[in-house]
Amino acid sequence: MTITTPKQAGGGVAPSNLVTFQIDELEVSVPKGTLVIRAAEQVGIQIPRFCDHPLLEPAGACRQCLVDVSMPDREGNLRPMPKPQASCTLTVAPGMVVKTQRTSAMADKAQHGVMELLLINHPLDCPVCDKGGECPLQNQAMSNGRSTSRFVDIKRTYPKPISISTEILLDRERCVLCQRCTRFQEQIAGDPFIALQDRGARSQIGLFSADVLGFGGDVPAGPAALDESGRPFASYFSGNTIQICPVGALTNASYRFRSRPFDLVSTPGIGEHDSCGSAIRIDHRRGAVLRRMAGDDASVNEEWITDKDRFAFTWQSAPDRIATPLVRDETTGQLRSASWAEALDVAAAGLAAATTAGGGHGVGVLPGGRLTLEDSYAYAKFARAVLGTNDVDQRVRPHSAEEDAFLGHAVAGRTVGGAGSVTFTDLEQAPTVLLVALEAEEEAGVTYLRLRKGVLAGRTAVFSVAPLASRGLDRISGTLVAAAPGTEPEVLDAITGSAPLGQLRTVADGLTTAGSVILVGERLAAVPGGFTAVLRLAERTGARLAWIPRRAGERGGVETGALPGLLPGGRPVSDARARVDVAAAWDVPSLPTTAGRTTTEILRAARKGKLSALVVGGVELADLPDPAKAVRAIEKVGFVVSLEVRASAVTELADVVLPVAPPTEKAGTYLNWEGRPRPFPQALASTALADHRALDALAAAMGAELGLRTITAVHAEIDQLGAWDGARIDAPVESAAEPTELAPGQAVLASWHLLLDAGRLQDGERFLAGTAKRTVARTSAATATAAGLTDGELVRVSSAHGSVTVRLAVTAMPDLVVWLPTNAPDCAVRTSLRADAGDVVQLAPADPAGDDVVSTDSAGSDNNDEVSA
Amino acid sequence: MSVSTLTPVLSAQWDATRSWTLATYEAGGGYAGLRHAFTQEPAAVLATVKDSGLRGRGGAGFPTGLKWSFLPAPDGGPRYLVVNADESEPGTCKDVPLMMATPQYLIEGSIITSYAIGCHHAFIYVRGEVLHVYRRLLRAVEEAYAAGYLGKNIMGTGYDLDITVHAGAGAYICGEETALLDSLEGLRGQPRLKPPFPAVEGLYARPTVVNNVESIASVPAIVMGGSDWFRTMGTEKSAGFGLFSLSGHVVRPGQYEAPLGITLRELLDLAGGIREGHELKFWTPGGSSTPLFTAEHLDVPLDYESVGAAGSMLGTRALQIFDETTCVVRAVTRWMEFYAHESCGKCTPCREGTYWLKAVLRRIEAGQGSMEDLDVLLDTCDNILGRAFCALGDGATSPVTSALKHFRAEFEQHITAGACPLDPAASALFGYPPRDAGRLAGQMAGTVQA
Question: In this structure, are B222 and B345 located in the same domain?
Answer without folding.
Answer: no
